[in-house]
Structure formats: structure tokens, C-alpha cells
Design brief:
Helices cover 43% and strands 19% of the residues. By secondary structure, the chain is of the alpha/beta class. It is built from eight helices and seven strands, in the order αααβαβαβαβαβαββ. The radius of gyration is 17 Å and the shape is globular. Bound molecules: S-adenosyl-L-homocysteine (SAH), 3,4-dihydroxybenzoic acid (DHB) and magnesium ion.
Length: 222
């Protein structure tokens, strides 16, 4: 099979899955529409991955979730929907404009009392959260700048308890992680290796398809 055929097959499988569950609800559609109108990059998780993460949070009985990288709030809405009414999702975002688009999307979803978007560099915000003993979180989703994944993992380890889940997005990146010359993928590779080796974590790297193959790393704190 040629590379083009493979790409086409991946796209068709992705469409098949979205078709099974779609058309997705209006709140999610509106979230993506307003994110596009606001000029945000279209790098939110896929609908299927959103459902998977919501299911994981529900299965974990999560009450407190931390997200690193909000964008327009698409993944945040999935997590928030998994939480009870008195649950909390704190989502960290560097870009003030993205954060304001996300807050509007969360508001429309009726989830403002659950979701708090904090603006700033996640490195600093995480440091402050550790100092303030803001943890533990039941689920932490790492999805911001890929170079910082190892540092975000280190910070996350100080904000969890046994049985918490740590999720990392984009951990296959179309196979970029296989290429030792790819410097941007180096940190992602290190992230996966740390999760595989750390005796405090029990993890898997789950390949996911979209137009290309990417991955979600899922680790449970033992
Ligand atoms: N989780 C979102 C997608 C996040 S995209 C979803 O699936 O819907 C990655 C986000 O991380 C972008 O919005 C980007 O602005 C943000 N980001 C990048 N570097 C950051 C940093 N150092 N601190 C906080 N956020 C950062
Ligand atoms: C891309 C996808 C992501 O999920 C992300 O967090 C950052 C970038 C991308 O496809 O470029
Ligand atoms: Mg991502």
C-alpha cells in the first residue's frame, strides 16, 4: 500500500468513527466553530479522543482534573462533563486570547462553575500550584508545548496521589518519535521513556489515528 493510500485509509477510518457518534452535539460544534473564528489553530483533540478521555475521567471517578494547554476548551469541555457538579477542572493556558475564547465556550457549555482557566506559562503556574499544595488531582492531561513534557511530568508527579491518571497527548506524532534526528520529538520520546521506566507509574502508549497516527500516553500512579 502506498503512503497516499495509507493516509486515505486513516482518514476514512477516522471519518467512520466520527460518523458513528456524530454529528456531535451543538455545544461541541459551536466550540470548534468559535475557536476557528477566533483564529485559533485547529489542534484540539479529535472527537474520538475527547470521548476516550471523558470516559477515562468518568471511570476514574474523577472530581479534580488539571489540564496543561487549554486552547479553545474543546478537551476541557469533555473532562468537565465527566465531573460531578462540585468537581473542578483547572486548565492552564499561555495565550490570553485563547483563554478568553475557551471561557466563552465553557460558559455556553454550562460548565463555568466547574472550569477555571488560568493564564500564564504553565511552568510558573505549576510551580505556584505545587507551592500552594493545590493537589492532588485525579487526572492530569498534558497537552501544551511539547518540549516541556518531561518537566510537566515532573511537576505532575507532585500533584497526584496513588491511582491518579497522567495523560500525555501527541506522543507518537506521525512517527516523529521514531526519528532520533528529530529534535522537537526528543522531549516527547523522553516523556514516554520516563513513563515506561518510572516504578511509580504504570503506563501505556496508545496509538490513535486521525489524518496521521498520533498517540495518547496513559499512566496510572501506582
Ligand atoms: N487541550 C486542547 C489543545 C491544546 S493545544 C484541546 O485538545 O482542545 C496546546 C495549547 O498549549 C495551546 O493553546 C498553547 O497556547 C498552549 N501552550 C503552549 N505553551 C504553553 C505554556 N508554556 N504554558 C501554557 N500553555 C501553553
Ligand atoms: C498539533 C496537535 C496537537 O494535538 C497539539 O497539541 C499540538 C500540535 C499538530 O497537529 O500540529
Ligand atoms: Mg495535543
Amino acid at each position: 500500500m502506498s503512503a497516499d493510500d495509507t493516509r486515505e485509509l486513516l482518514r476514512e477510518i477516522d471519518e467512520y468513527i466520527d460518523g458513528l457518534f456524530g454529528p456531535s452535539d451543538e455545544v461541541l460544534e459551536a466550540t470548534l466553530r468559535d475557536s476557528r473564528r477566533g483564529g485559533l489553530p485547529e489542534i484540539n483533540v479529535s472527537p474520538n479522543q475527547g470521548r476516550l478521555m471523558q470516559l477515562l475521567a468518568e471511570t476514574a471517578g474523577a472530581r479534580r482534573v488539571l489540564e496543561i494547554g487549554t486552547l479553545g476548551g474543546y478537551s476541557a469541555i469533555h473532562f468537565a462533563r465527566a465531573l460531578p457538579e462540585d468537581g473542578t477542572l483547572i486548565s492552564l493556558e499561555l495565550d490570553e486570547h485563547y483563554a478568553s475564547v475557551a471561557r466563552n465556550n465553557v460558559e455556553r457549555a454550562g460548565l463555568s462553575s466547574i472550569v477555571e482557566v488560568r493564564v500564564g506559562d504553565a511552568h510558573d503556574l505549576l510551580e505556584a500550584m505545587i507551592q500552594n499544595e493545590d493537589g492532588p488531582f485525579d487526572v492530569i492531561f498534558i497537552d501544551a508545548d511539547k518540549e516541556s513534557y518531561p518537566e510537566y511530568l515532573e511537576a505532575s508527579m507532585l500533584l497526584v496521589r496513588p491511582d491518579s491518571l497522567i495523560l500525555g497527548d501527541n506522543t507518537i506524532r506521525g512517527g516523529a518519535v521514531l526519528d532520533p534526528q528529530d529534535t522537537t520529538a526528543r522531549a516527547t520520546r523522553e516523556f514516554n521513556e520516563r513513563i515506561a521506566r518510572d516504578p511509580r507509574l504504570s503506563g501505556v502508549v496508545l496509538p490513535l489515528i486521525r489524518e496521521r497516527i498520533d498517540g495518547l500516553t496513559i499512566a496510572r500512579v501506582v
